[in-house]
Amino acid sequence: MQDEESLVRRAQQHEPEAFAQLYEEYFNRIYRYIVLRIGNAMEAEDLTQQVFLNALRSISSFKWKGIPFSAWLFRIAHNQVVDYLRKAAKRTTDSLEGKVAMSSSNPQLEVERKLAIEQVLLATQQLTEAQREVISLRFTSELPIAEVAKVMGKSEGAVKALQHSAIVALRKALSVRDNEK
After folding, report:
1. CB neighbours of 143 closer than 8 A, spacing ≥ 6?
2. Which is more confidently placed, 129 or 26?
3. Which of its termini does the chain have fewer beta carbons within 10 Å around, N or C?
4. CA nearest to 125, candidates 97, 84, 83
5. Domain ranges for the chain
C-alpha cells in the first residue's frame, strides 16, 4: 500500500482510486470489529458499508495529528455500532445470534466451528462494553495496543489492563460453559 498519508490526501482531493485503496485496505478489519461487537454478520456488512460511506462524505475533515487514519475509521465504526445497538435496544429484539457465514466441504466441521463462534460471541456479551471493544479491536481487527489506545482515547496501560481483564473474563465464561455440558 502506498504511503497512507499521501493516499488519504489524494482521497481528500476526490481521487476515487485512492479511496478505493483505503477501502480495500481497511474493509476486512472494520467488518471483523463490527461483527464481533454486534454478533450479526449480515448487519455487520451493512454497517461496514455505512462506515465507509460516512468516511467518504467526511474525509475532507480528516486532519493528520499523529493519529493513524485507521483510528479515525474505527472511531466512525464505533459510533455506527453504538447507534445500531441503541436502536436495537429500542426494538427490544434478542437477535444477537451471530450468523457468521462459513463455507466448508465438511458439514460437521462447519457446524462445530459455528457453535464455537456462537459460544465466544455469547461469552463476549458478559464482558463490559470497554472490554468487548478492546477484544474486538485487538483480535478481530488486529490493531496494535498503541492504535487501540488512540481509537479508544485511553492510555496504552489502560488498554493492556482492559485486554487482560477481558481475556480472564472470557476464559472464565467459556470454562463455565464447558463445565455445563
Report:
1. 29, 70, 74, 137, 151
2. 26
3. C
4. 97
5. 4-180
User: The domain 4-180 is classified under which CATH number: 1.10.1200.10, 3.30.300.20, 3.90.550.10, 1.10.1740.10?
Assistant: 1.10.1740.10
**CA 75 – CA 10 distance, rounded (Å):** 21
Alpha-carbon distance 120 to 173, whole Å? 9
Helix, strand or coil, per DSSP, at residue 140: helix
- The residue type at 5: E
Summarize the chain as % helix, strand, coil (round to 5): 75, 0, 25
In angstroms, rounded to a whole number, what is the distance separating the alpha carbons of residues 161 and 151? Answer: 16
DSSP conformation letters of 13-73: TT-HHHHHHHHHHHHHHHHHHHHHHH--HHHHHHHHHHHHHHHHHHGGG---SSS-HHHHH
Report residue 1's pLDDT band, with 50, 70 and 90 as the boundaries: very low
Neighbouring CB atoms inside 10 A of 31's CB total 20
CA-to-CA separations, 23 to 3, 18, 78, in angstroms, rounded: 15, 9, 17
Query: Would you say the pTM of this structure is higher than 0.90?
Result: no
The predicted-structure confidence for 76-116, as pLDDT tens digits, reads as follows: 999 999 888 888 766 543 433 444 444 446 777 777 777 77
Give the closest residue to 120 by CA, choosing from 86, 162, 164, 167.
167
